[in-house]
């Protein structure tokens, strides 16, 4: 509570100088593809006696994020944090997904039409919300039931409590779309045990709810059938005490153990292969293991890597490695540059080709440029980490909201 009071005092001074109010106004710009939708329906709000719930509500699109959705989340979360009558906040998704990440087809269409500013606004708005989530002062409960990919993890995993279920499916498939894991992924993936983060980022492999608990990505596990009971209990709670919320979640929790076929049983092999310095060395190590072993895991892992954009693999490995030594805001600033450089085709059109092949034409036969790892130069990779043309840098309110996770 002392931290919250201090934050409110600082915010008051910021409002007087207009700096913070200008930042808030920046969220009002919406991309063209969202103007025809009812914005209040994309994120539904449920009020409880001492809490609020934000419900992502685009079930037909697996709750894929648009700029308008994230802008609304920003406004809601800021107002809830300042409201002393609200003790904690909950987030969940409608339908069979929590959130499938960014609406990449909409971004693809915008970029193809030349609307780079709308694309930039999406990443700016999303990354600012991820930072808000990662520095949020009130307890936050995310019910991660169903599909959770890419940016869907970014808007939830930085929060305090993450509840997964027997329906949860987590993945970062971006390298197979010529992109990179973003929205804070280089921060939380790089902090997983050993080199599991590199494995997940480079292969796009999936984790289930039990595996997320075991590796530390989630805090509580519950069967999907119990979620309604959890929500009902939380909705009646009059508290802002994290320990009380934790106890309530634990009361509905289940003890879980990963299946012996889980990828987590391969952590030693993952560390041996994915702990190496370059993508080429990782592939070579996997090929040697595959030749000397009857374990099909090595072969399937090689297949996943070879389906990905060679340039995206190298960019992603460097991003995760740099994330190991950076704070959340530094990771977001770097990911912002990488994302915009990908949209701008600074070194390659792989983002456009990957989305076309997997989500537009669905021929699943992308023609990557460059087509092989040995044709990816250091300059190409460096280009993604440079300032994206004349576009403005990402400005996060680090003076107002110092990261503490």
Write a brief caption for the model:
By secondary structure, the protein is α/β, with parallel strands linked by helices.
Helices and strands, with pairings:
Layout: H1 2-17, H2 19-25, H3 39-42, E1 43-47, E2 51-56, H4 67-82, E3 88-93, E4 97-99, H5 104-112, H6 116-134, E5 140-144, E6 147-149, H7 151-154, E7 161-164, E8 169-171, H8 185-188, H9 196-203, E9 207-208, H10 209-215, E10 220-221, H11 227-235, H12 242-251, H13 267-274, H14 279-291, H15 296-307, H16 310-323, H17 328-343, H18 350-360, H19 378-384
Parallel strand pairs: 2-3, 3-5, 4-6, 5-7, 6-8, 7-10
Antiparallel strand pairs: 1-2, 8-9
Helix pairs in contact: 4-6, 5-18, 6-17, 9-16, 14-15, 16-17
Tell me about this structure.
By secondary structure, this protein is α/β, with parallel strands linked by helices. It has one domain (43-255, 264-385): 2-enoyl-CoA Hydratase, Chain A, domain 1. Helix content is 48%, strand content 10%. It has helices spanning 2-17, 19-25, 39-42, 67-82, 104-112, 116-134, 151-154, 185-188, 196-203, 209-215, 227-235, 242-251, 267-274, 279-291, 296-307, 310-323, 328-343, 350-360, 378-384; strands spanning 43-47, 51-56, 88-93, 97-99, 140-144, 147-149, 161-164, 169-171, 207-208, 220-221. The protein has a 6-stranded mixed sheet with strand order 1-2-3-5-7-10, with helices on both faces. The protein has a 4-stranded mixed sheet with strand order 4-6-8-9. Helix 4 (67-82) links the parallel strand 2 and strand 3. Helix 9 (196-203) packs antiparallel against helix 16 (310-323) and helix 16 (310-323) runs antiparallel to helix 17. The protein is globular, with a radius of gyration of 21 Å. The chain starts with a helix and ends in a 21-residue tail after the last helix. Mean pLDDT is 87; it is low at 1-36.
